[in-house]
Amino acid sequence: MSQQLYHLLSGAWPLVAESRQLSSITPAGMDALWSAGWRHFGSDFFRASLMSDGGCLKRQIPLRVKIGAFSQSRSQRRTWKKNADLRITCGAASPGSAEQSLFDIHKSRFAENVPNRLEDFLGACPEKYPCEYRQFSVCHEDQLIAVSFMAVGSRSCSGIYAAFDPAFSRRRLGVYTMLAELEFAREQELDFYYLGYATVEPSCYDYKKEFRSLEYYDWEGGWLGGRDLAKVDQE
Fold first, then answer.
1. Contact criterion met (CB below 8 Å) for 40 and 24
2. Is the Cβ–Cβ distance between 118 and 95 less than 8 Å?
3. How far apart (Å, rounded) are the C-alpha atoms in residues 225 and 73?
4. DSSP SS3 for 169
5. Which SS3 state, helix, strand or coil, does residue 226 take?
6. Which residues have CB under 8 Å from 41's CB, separation 6+?
7. What is the pLDDT of residue 1?
8. How open is the CA angle 109-19-67, to the nearest 5 degrees?
9. What span, in angstroms and rounded, lies between the C-alpha atoms of 113 and 99?
10. CA 12 from chain center: how many Å?
11. Looking at residue 149, what is its pLDDT?
12. Number of domains into which the chain is organized
């Protein structure tokens, strides 16, 4: 019996699997949903404490950063400086053909679970977003090489999706856009930045665990320090 299946059957890990459709939510309402482990793609809201990854069942955890206490790590500072020559703009989300073309290039990186369309993550059109969406566009000279989308609540914000041109992989643009979103959150004096899901066990989402001032949701109503994840992994 695998460790993941043991946790599932023994009840040692909370079992959560929910979804709902919400077309319009107040900023404070978004804060409350994120703080209870909910994620959303457009008006599709969901949360789950388990996920399948590489044929294994893994314990899934929502992550967030305490913005006031956050500072960049050494590698993140290098990434930030490496991209100082790029032009990044932030505005209301309005994805068009350029963003979709970049997404189509980006998804060529995946061999499994290949995403279909950008609107699967954002919804069919901006006016149907359940809350305020921001778009971060990164250009090298006149070429769009990365874009990320973020939802904004009252006292917190949540990263939704990022796409980048694999030809610029050495720039770590996925991390770069997350740092840009964190800087936006700091300027807006928000409390939390939600990074999405990772897993207790090792996975391709481990880069999210490298952010300082990290907390994870225990699926029982509490947020714990990211350093405690190593203890959970040994349980």
1. no
2. yes
3. 17
4. helix
5. helix
6. 120, 121, 122, 123, 160, 161
7. 40
8. 65
9. 20
10. 26
11. 97
12. 1
Residue 180 is encoded by which pair of tokens?
């840009």
Only one residue has tokens 């109503």, namely 221
Q: How many CB atoms lie within 10 A of CB 194?
A: 28
DSSP state of 54: T
- The number of CA neighbours under 13 Å toward the Cβ of 108 is 11
pLDDT of the residue at 45: 96
Overall average pLDDT of the 168-174 stretch: 96
Burial class (CB in 10 A: 0-12, 13-18, 19+), 72: middle
Structural domain boundaries enclosing 86: 3-234
Residue 5 has pLDDT above 60, yes or no: no
Task: Report the CATH number at residue 213.
Answer: 3.40.630.30
Tokens of 54: 């590489």
DSSP secondary structure letter of residue 104: H
Q: Does the pLDDT value for residue 129 go beyond 70?
A: yes
